[in-house]
Inverse folding.
C-alpha cells in the first residue's frame, strides 16, 4: 500500500450521488468502471499475481502447512519402505480423523482468541458416559441413545464453559484448565479405577475400521465436486445479478480440476485391495465422509452466515463487533458449545479407532489439537484462519506421528519433532502478522 | 432530496442529565443539530463530550431529560434503537475489524442475506456505491483487508460505514486526531460532503482549526454544561477558547 494517499480535491463533487439516484430510478446496471475494484478483475495471470502479492504480504494461510506436509511426505517415503503403502495411507487417514475433527472444533474458539484446554477431556468424559450407558454389563442402552446422551453432555459442557467465559468473564484458559483437571477425576469416577470398557458395537467400530464400497468412494468425490461447482455457480450468479464483476471462470475450473485430481488419486489409492490374502480391504474409510461433512458444514457457517462473520469480527476486534450491535456474549457462548460438541465427535472417532475407552482416554490429545490448528495457520491471536487450515495442520501432525512410528524411533522423538513444528508454525504466524501490518501484541 | 429547512432541528436534546454514582457528568445539557449542517461539539477533557454522544448513540442512556428526533420524543436505550432512528457514531478508536475487508466492515452487524447466506455481490456493490457517493478515490479495492489501510483510509471507511444505511445524524468523535495534514484535509472534505447530502453531522474535536474549517454551528461544553451554541460565522477562535476554558461565562442559555 502506498503510504501517502493523494489528498482529495476539496471541490464539491456531488457526481457520485447523482449517478446513484439515476441508476436506482432507471434500473440500468452500470458498467464495472463505476465501481471501486474488488480484486476479482483480470485474467488468471492477474489473479495469480494478486495471490502471490497477498502471500508476500504475510497472508499465507495454510501454505506453510501444505509445504510441510509435502516435505514430510516425501521424506518419510524415502526413509521407510512401509510409509508409501496403500495400507499405511488408509491408516494415516483414520489416525488423522480424530485430530482433524478436534482441530476444527478448537478452531471455533481459537478464532475468538480463546482456547479450550478441556476439549480432550470433554471427549474423554463424554465417551466414558457413552460406553458406560451402552455397555451390556451396565445400563445396556441402545447405542444411538447412549450416543445422543454423550452429545448432549458435550453440549452441556460447552454451555458451562461458555457461561463462565462469556457471561462471567473468566479467561477461557482458566475455566478450561479447571475442567481439564476436574474432568480427569470425573472420568475416573465414571469408568472406575483402572477400568476399561471395550466397545462392542459394530456400527461404532465400523466408523474407523470399516470401509465404504469402492463405488461409494467415487460417488463421494463426485458429490464434493458437484457441491463445489454448484456453490461457485450460485456465487457467480448472485454477483452477476448485483452487477459486480466475477473472477474469471477459468479459476473455478482450475480449482475443481485440482480437487478432482487430488481427490481422484486418494480414492484410487484407497480403492486398491490393501488387505491380506484372506479378506479384501478396499474402499474409503467410513470416517472420511463424516469428517468431510463437518468440514463442509462448518466452513459454510463460518464463510456464509452471520454467525461465522461475527465470530471472525469478535476475534478481530470485539469492541467493534459490540458497537455494531452484535451480541458478543451469545456468539462467544455458542462457539464453546460448538467446540465441545465437535470434541465429542472427535472422541467418538478416537474410541472407534482404539476400540476401547479407559480412564485416561482423551487426556493427551487436546494440545495436539491446538497444535494442529496453529500449524495449519489458524492464528492464536484470533480472527484469522479456516477450518481447512486446521485440517491440513492435523494432517501434518498425524504424518509426523505416523512416519516416525514407522521408523522405529524412540517415542520421545515424536514429541520433540511435533513440538518443534508447532513453535515453527507459531513463529510463522507471528511474523506473517507483523508483515500484515499488525503488532505482535494481542489487541 | 430533503433540502434542509432551517428551523426544524433533526435532533434536539433538552436538559439531559447523566451521572456516574456521585459524579454528575452532564448537568442539564441542551443541544440542537440541524440536517445538512455540521455542528461542532467542543470542550476540554472531562467536559462531558463523550458522555453526551454515548447517550445519543444509546450506549449509555441519559438519566433524565428529553431527546427529540424530528420534534418527536424518543427513547434511546440501545445502539440498535439509535441506529433505527438513523443515528450513527464513528468512534475515535475506529470501530473496525482489521481482519475483515472493507465491505465486511461496512456491513458488519447488518449483512445482506438471501436464504440465510450472504449476498456478497449486493453488499460489495452498495459499499462501492457509498464510497463513490462520498467521492472516495484513495481506496484501491473494496476487498482489501482493513489492516492494509492507512489512518485516513480507515477513517473514510468508518464514515462510509456510518452513512451506508441512510444515516440522518452522523456523530464523529475526533475524526482527525490521529491523522496527518493531507489525510485531515481529506476527512474534513468528507465531512462537508456528508452535510451537503443533507445529513446532520455532530463533530467532536479538539482541533479548533478543523472546527472552523467545517462547522456551521459550534457548541461548547464546560464542566457538564452547555455554555454556548453559536453559528461559527458569528464567533472566532478566541471567543471559543474562552468558553472552553470557562473564562467566559454563559450569557443566557444557548443562543
Amino acid at each position: 500500500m502506498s503510504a501517502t494517499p493523494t489528498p482529495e480535491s476539496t471541490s464539491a463533487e456531488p457526481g457520485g450521488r447523482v449517478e446513484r439516484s439515476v441508476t436506482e430510478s432507471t434500473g440500468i446496471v452500470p458498467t464495472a468502471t463505476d465501481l471501486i475494484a474488488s480484486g476479482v478483475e483480470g485474467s488468471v495471470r492477474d489473479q495469480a499475481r494478486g495471490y502471490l502479492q497477498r502471500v508476500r504480504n504475510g497472508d499465507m494461510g495454510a501454505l506453510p502447512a501444505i509445504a510441510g506436509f509435502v516435505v514430510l511426505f516425501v521424506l518419510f517415503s524415502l526413509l521407510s519402505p512401509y510409509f508409501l503403502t496403500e495400507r499405511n495411507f488408509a491408516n494415516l487417514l483414520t489416525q488423522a480423523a480424530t485430530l482433524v475433527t478436534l482441530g476444527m472444533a478448537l478452531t471455533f474458539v481459537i478464532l475468538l482468541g480463546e482456547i479450550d484446554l478441556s476439549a480432550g477431556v470433554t471427549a474423554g468424559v463424554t465417551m466414558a458416559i457413552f460406553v458406560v450407558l451402552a455397555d451390556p454389563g451396565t445400563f445396556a442402552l441402545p447405542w444411538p441413545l447412549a450416543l445422543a446422551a454423550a452429545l448432549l453432555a458435550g453440549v452441556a459442557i460447552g454451555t458451562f464453559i461458555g457461561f463462565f467465559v462469556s457471561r462471567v468473564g473468566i479467561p477461557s484458559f482458566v475455566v478450561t484448565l479447571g475442567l481439564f483437571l476436574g474432568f480427569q477425576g470425573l472420568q475416573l469416577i465414571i469408568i472406575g479405577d483402572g477400568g476399561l470398557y471395550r466397545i462392542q458395537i459394530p456400527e461404532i467400530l465400523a466408523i474407523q475400521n470399516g470401509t465404504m464400497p469402492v463405488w461409494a468412494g467415487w460417488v463421494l468425490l463426485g458429490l464434493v465436486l458437484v457441491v463445489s461447482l454448484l456453490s461457485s455457480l450460485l456465487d457467480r450468479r448472485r454477483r452477476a445479478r448485483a452487477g459486480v464483476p466475477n473472477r474469471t471462470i477459468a479459476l473455478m475450473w482450475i480449482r475443481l480440476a485440482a480437487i478432482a485430481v487430488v481427490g481422484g488419486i486418494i480414492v484410487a489409492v484407497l480403492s486398491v485391495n490393501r488387505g491380506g490374502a484372506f479378506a479384501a480391504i478396499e474402499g474409503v474409510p467410513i470416517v472420511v465422509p463424516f469428517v468431510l461433512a463437518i468440514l463442509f458444514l462448518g466452513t459454510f457457517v463460518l464463510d456464509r452466515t452471520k454467525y461465522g462473520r461475527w465470530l471472525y469480527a469478535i476475534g478481530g476486534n470485539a469492541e467493534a463487533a459490540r458497537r455494531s450491535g452484535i451480541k458478543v456474549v451469545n456468539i462467544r457462548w455458542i462457539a464453546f458449545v460448538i467446540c465441545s460438541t465437535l470434541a465429542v465427535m472427535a472422541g467418538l472417532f478416537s474410541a472407534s479407532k482404539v476400540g476401547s475407552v479407559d480412564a485416561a482416554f482423551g487426556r493427551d490429545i487436546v494440545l495436539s489439537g491446538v497444535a494442529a490448528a496453529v500449524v495449519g495457520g489458524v492464528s492464536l491471536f484470533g480472527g484469522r484462519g479456516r477450518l481447512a487450515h486446521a485440517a491440513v495442520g492435523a494432517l501434518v501432525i498425524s504424518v509426523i506421528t505416523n512416519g516416525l512410528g514407522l521408523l522405529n524411533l524412540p517415542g520421545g522423538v515424536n514429541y520433540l519433532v511435533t513440538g518443534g513444528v508447532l513453535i515453527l508454525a507459531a513463529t510463522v504466524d507471528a511474523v506473517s502478522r507483523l508483515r500484515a501490518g499488525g503488532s505482535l501484541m494481542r489487541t | 432530496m430533503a433540502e434542509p429547512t432551517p428551523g426544524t432541528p433533526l435532533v434536539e436534546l433538552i436538559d439531559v442529565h447523566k451521572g456516574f454514582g456521585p459524579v454528575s457528568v452532564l448537568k442539564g445539557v441542551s443541544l440542537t443539530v440541524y440536517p445538512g449542517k455540521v455542528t461542532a461539539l467542543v470542550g476540554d477533557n472531562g467536559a462531558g463530550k463523550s458522555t453526551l454522544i454515548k447517550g445519543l448513540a444509546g450506549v449509555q442512556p441519559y438519566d433524565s431529560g428529553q431527546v427529540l428526533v424530528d420534534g418527536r420524543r424518543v427513547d434511546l436505550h440501545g445502539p440498535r434503537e439509535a441506529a433505527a432512528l438513523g443515528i450513527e457514531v464513528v468512534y475515535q478508536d475506529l470501530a473496525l475489524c482489521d481482519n475483515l475487508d472493507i465491505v465486511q466492515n461496512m456491513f458488519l452487524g447488518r449483512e445482506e442475506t438471501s436464504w440465510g447466506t450472504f449476498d456478497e455481490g449486493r453488499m460489495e456493490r452498495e459499499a462501492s456505491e457509498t464510497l463513490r457517493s462520498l467521492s472516495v478515490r484513495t481506496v484501491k479495492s473494496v476487498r482489501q483487508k482493513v489492516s492494509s489501510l492507512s489512518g485516513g483510509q480507515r477513517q473514510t471507511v468508518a464514515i462510509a460505514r456510518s452513512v451506508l444505511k441512510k444515516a440522518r445524524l452522523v456523530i464523529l468523535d475526533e475524526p482527525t486526531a490521529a491523522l496527518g495534514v493531507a489525510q485531515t484535509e481529506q476527512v474534513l472534505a468528507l465531512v462537508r460532503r456528508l452535510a451537503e447530502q443533507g445529513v446532520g453531522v455532530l463533530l467532536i474535536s479538539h482541533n479548533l482549526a478543523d472546527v472552523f474549517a467545517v462547522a456551521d454551528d459550534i457548541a461548547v461544553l464546560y464542566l457538564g454544561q452547555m455554555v454556548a451554541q453559536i453559528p461559527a460565522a458569528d464567533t472566532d477562535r478566541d471567543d471559543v477558547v474562552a468558553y472552553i476554558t470557562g473564562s467566559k461565562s454563559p450569557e443566557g442559555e444557548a443562543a
Chain A touches chain B through 58 residues (CB under 8 Å). The longest helix of chain A spans residues 214-242. The two ends of chain A are 22 Å apart (CA to CA). Confidence is low (pLDDT under 50) at residues 1-32 of chain A.
